[in-house]
Amino acid sequence: MVAIVGALLEQCDRFLLSQDIHPIVIFISLWKVVVKVVDILNTMVVPVELFDHDTLVKSTSTSLSGLKPILHDPRSPHC
To answer: What is the pLDDT of residues 7-55, one digit of tens each?
Structure first.
């Protein structure tokens, strides 16, 4: 999430501020995006019991499996 926000801010700096769009207008627009994204993510939530070991392990391994291409890419700063 932090990488996405950083990329958005970089593009705002690069394109919007150079077009003399006021930072408040950019902030309000980005805030609307954040609100919409949170609404969408809240519809995708799956409740998990904190003491359900099998479900927690499955969720963790699923989440981390998305990092494999990044972690094994020699161009990645994480190698």
So the answer is: 888 888 888 888 888 888 888 988 998 899 899 989 988 787 888 888 8
Which residue shows structure tokens 């919007």? Answer: 16
Amino acid in position 35? V
- What is the rounded distance in angstroms from the CA atom of residue 1 to the CA atom of residue 9? 12
C-alpha 24/C-alpha 52 separation (Å) is 45
Q: Are 4 and 12 in contact (CB under 8 A)?
A: no
Amino acid at 71: L
Rounded CA gap, 27 and 73, in Å? 34
> Structure pTM?
0.53
Write the single-letter amino acid at 51.
F
